[in-house]
Amino acid sequence: MPPTLSQLQFGRLRCLRAKLLKRYKHQPLVSCLAALYSCQWRRYEGNCTQPGDCCCNKLEGASFALLVAAFCVTLVFLYFWGQAENDYNDFDWFNFGNLGFWFPWSVVLLVIAAGFFTYITVLMLLAVCLLSEGQKLHLHWSHKVGILLSLTFSVVATAVLSDLWGNEWTTLLLSFQITAPYLHLGGVLLMTTLAWPIALHFFRMNSRVRRCLIMGVYLTILATVYLVPLGLYSPCIKKKGTLGPAPALIGHRGAPMLAPENTLMSFEKAVEAGSDGLETDVTISFDGVPFLMHDRTLRRTTNVHKVFPNRTDTPAAMFTWAELESLDAGTWFLSHNPFGTVGSLGAKDQQQAGNQSVCSLQAYLQLAGQTDKLVIFDLYRPPRGHPYRDTWIQRTLEVVQNESSINSSQVLWLPSDLRALVQEMDPELQQTSGSRLPLEELHTEHIVKLNLHYSSMSPELISDYAAVNITTNLYVISQPWLYSLAWCNGVHSVTTNAPQLLSTMSSPLFLMSPDEYNLMWILTDLLSLVLILIIFIFHW
């Protein structure tokens, strides 16, 4: 009986597929990939899987499973630490306080994580390419050691950082509100690419159990990736015309990427960069002069170890103002380069930075008064034995009211001690709370602004307080993606280390209407599904 038209067409399709799958033209490339994976240049010659064969033996299967696990773990750690960049400076100074010397540990950790991930990714690509060519896998023992080392490093680093720096997981969750749409696209692309080797080996297997297992796992992951947007929330997916104004910028200790923190130069740079406010930390000297210093001691940001070598660990408040004025508060910035930005400064700025001294509260307030900027500061109570231990609030108020040109309405008063007395002495101060309190208590204490860590960010919190005329400031936000998220959430202001960077942003990094996002999501999934069906039909 002569063949039917459909049989002829099917036969032609099989011939076309056979021609497309001929490998003799790129056998040198396959041999090269195999050699990189196995470290043996002749091992793979003619070593293809036959119909019914598995792609590898049990040991190599376990090695491949370990490779996949290492890929996932190193990816998670690299993403985790990459998104933590906003807090690298805090991490490095935390280590400085414990180790006693400065080193950019955060960047080193990022480079190591990126190196391990790159290595594992290359092995994954080699394995996928070999599987796509129907080759058997033989991973060299040195690569197996490398995989174990990468996996161990990522697991240990994640555990240690989770213990010491657990708040960064909140940062990770917040980042998904910006990156999730892009991660979804990447996940769909990856699953679509994996369809080729999976389909190839699926149709070469004789075991139904293996076929069901491989397809069950693949389809489960594929369906999960397709449906991820159903559980996605991002405040930056909003209707057009509903985005509010950009959050105002408050320079955290000035502009610490451009000048030594808490120096007059740093605040001048923050003003030049377009900051709407200036943030600092206030301590009172032994003879009653309020000055700017974040740390309990002078060790980190001055040359106290040279001028007063026997008082390195003495509290900063136990020095007189004359002693404080004799210290160099700028050279450390040039030598440590805490943000890696010193090289971008001109020779004049570097010279000026090296000549900075400890700044007084009076000079700080005078600058803010002259430039019409808001100020907010933490006020540290002096230690026991200090002459102003019990009158530190009153002494600070004297400087605000009588020794500077700033208006009280420009001061966001953050210290919670003796708040009722402060309100009575100067009602024009903008009372600011550093913690989330019940609304009744906030009104009782005349609170008009909240100063919260950025991990507290949520549109519900912002809108609930805004409804009772309480604005919100979040600290410390220095990365554009985090600033974008604050912008979409309706935050009123943010404290930042990078006013010179954030002031240039004209819109959030990610902003899309719900209709536009749904269209992108559906089209991406449909296109992926069509390509996967074509790949499976082709191999069938």
TrEMBL record:
GO terms for molecular function: glycerophosphodiester phosphodiesterase activity. SUPFAM superfamilies: PLC-like phosphodiesterases. Residues 247-506 form the GP-PDE domain. GO terms for cellular component: membrane. InterPro entries: GP_PDE_dom, PLC-like_Pdiesterase_TIM-brl. Keywords: Glycoprotein, Hydrolase, Membrane, Transmembrane, Transmembrane helix. This is GP-PDE domain-containing protein. It comes from Anabas testudineus.
